[in-house]
């Protein structure tokens, strides 16, 4: 039950970082 949220947070964080870097 901890792997699901962890993976989700990681994916979201990675996507956000990628999007921000791409936008900048």
TrEMBL record:
Q: Name one Pfam family in it.
A: Amidase
| Chain ranges of the Amidase domain | 1-20
- What SUPFAM superfamilies has UniProt attached to this entry? Amidase signature (AS) enzymes
Per the UniProt record, the source organism is Nymphaea colorata (pocket water lily)
Q: Which InterPro entries match?
A: Amidase_dom, AS_sf
- The protein depicted here goes by the name Amidase domain-containing protein
């Amino acid at each position: 039950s901890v792997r699901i949220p962890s993976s989700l947070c990681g994916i979201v964080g990675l996507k956000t970082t990628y999007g921000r870097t791409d936008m900048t």
